[in-house]
Amino acid sequence: MDIDYHFCTMYVLSRWADFGSANAKLIATSAQLVDDNMDDNSFSDQAEEDALAQGIHIRYSSQNIWNNLTGKGNLEVWVPFHFLPGLAGETTDEKLLCRKHSVLSKALGERLLETTLDNSQFSFRLGVGLHVLADTWAHQGFAGINASINRVQNLIFNASGESIEKMLKDFINDHKVVADFINSFNPLGHVAAAHCPDQPYLWWKTKYLFADGRKNWEEFLEASEEIFRILQQVSCVPVTGLSDEQKAKLTECFQGIQSDDFDERYEEWLRRIHENYFDIANFDDNDATMEYRTGTILGDPDFRKSFYDEINDHFDWVRDQLLAHDIKVLKKDAVY
Length: 336
Prior knowledge:
about 325 residues; mainly alpha
């Protein structure tokens, strides 16, 4: 999922669940910051050391291309924060496949339901945890590791019948070295499916995974229903789930805002939020000017510490859950 879901949809769901605009912004910013919280300087640990001196343990929850290629911290990033293991199957690789409604995703939902408003860090816990939970719908069927189980065949998307596999074959017919590389490649996450899992308006399929086709807008709506119910319970309002009108508005946005540029989708979501397209009760000036900025959290010393406290707490929780199933892929003190 991209910023149009992790920030904009999360903001709308939080406001519908009766969180005030300030707290909704912190929840949504925390959710999106999971994707943007990466090591900008892989060749120096000075920033991490400076933060540690201030009592902040920086743990990254996303990667730049360089670190992905080198494998620096890959498991510690992708497994706990983006491809929550489903724990089903026989081999470790199979158990690491991300699945919606899995044992671990249900446990995460229950963990978030224990969040109370008297916890000063509730916005950050909800943002981080709900990002991970939402991704179990988008990333289902893939694992946050380099493995053959992430390979796909006959990827078709957008109902046009255009096949990435065919385009690759046309390209590599004259590039034997590239062909050999691709055939031996163990993809990381859903890289073999390109950006298909994260685009809300897309219909796509592969030969074995989603062989009958997957409508992302339906998956994203299902995720929104579960997330909304969690937000309602934590907010201490009646847990009603999404109304038909709310479902219709979300579906129109997921399916109707069609651009492969997530920034364009984000801008359209912002326009609709600013104009109160979503019929937010107690709509205020913060709603009318709301936008995503990393500085909302990282520029505030207290918010920054709270965010990283929750990032570390979530990592430790996932690691302990995996250890309970004898899966030892996450280190207690990962060094990046």
